[in-house]
Design goal:
By secondary structure, the protein is mainly α. The chain is built from twelve helices and no strands. The chain starts with 33 loop residues before the first helix and ends in a 6-residue tail after the last helix.
């Protein structure tokens, strides 16, 4: 027994295993997908304040063009903003002058009359559609007097006459209808067309001179019913 050589590494006198030895258990590594290894941790975003969302909606609307309070209120309602929050935001905008329906109405009247030749009746309808209060609209429209309306009507007719074709009667009715659709009262529209025709040529002047009272009354009646009948 003594002569038998003890097998090293099997008993109490065994040498410590070497690093990397096959008998040394290796720690197990958790397996992660490539997406998990590269994907950053996402921090939850807190819900946004409703008033902040409402302000952003208003500012985006105002960046396109000036708006009335009613227009902004409509935009907020479509986005689901509560009436209470909408009122708070719009009240604040009123206080600091971001919303000013009176200034909007004045600018609208000047711009649309100068650029499109619209008369007070058409302008009043547009302001009403945009939610401008009737009293505020009337004050803005009061800055457009009858003399200015008549001058604009005459200028519109003279510009159209340069390219008008057809018999004088047909041209007359088309031009009166054009002015009516822009909101001019029948008397203003008819007078503007008669004066412009009289100044255009001898033939047109003769036609304008012989438009009798019955013909004018018929045109006025058509205008009162529906301006499109003169197309």
């Amino acid at each position: 027994m003594a002569g038998r050589r003890a097998r090293a590494g099997r008993g109490w006198d065994a040498s410590p295993p070497r690093t990397g030895d096959a008998t040394t258990p290796r720690p197990r590594r958790s397996r992660r997908s490539p997406a998990e290894e590269t994907e950053p941790e996402v921090t939850p975003v807190p819900p946004r304040d409703e008033a902040e969302v409402a302000r952003e909606i208003c500012l985006r609307q105002l960046a396109v063009r000036p708006r009335t309070r009613a227009e902004l209120a409509g935009a907020l309602a479509k986005r689901g903003i509560s009436d209470e929050v909408a009122a708070q935001v719009l009240d604040r905008y009123d206080e600091v002058g971001i919303i000013d329906d009176a200034a909007f109405a004045r600018a609208w009247v000047t711009s649309r009359h100068t650029g499109r030749g619209l008369a007070r009746r058409a302008l009043a309808n547009e302001l009403r559609q945009r939610g401008v209060d009737g009293e505020v609209a009337s004050e803005a429209l009061g800055e457009l007097d009858e003399e200015t309306e008549a001058e604009t009507a005459r200028a519109l007719v003279e510009r159209k006459l340069r390219t008008a074709r057809g018999e004088p009667d047909a041209v007359f009715r088309r031009l009166v209808g054009m002015l009516a659709r822009k909101g001019y009262p029948p008397g203003v529209a008819i007078r503007a067309v008669k004066d412009a025709l009289a100044a255009q040529s001898a033939e047109a002047a003769e036609f304008a001179e012989h438009i009798d009272a019955d013909a004018l009354a018929e045109v006025e009646s058509d205008l009162d019913r529906d301006p499109r009948t003169l197309d």
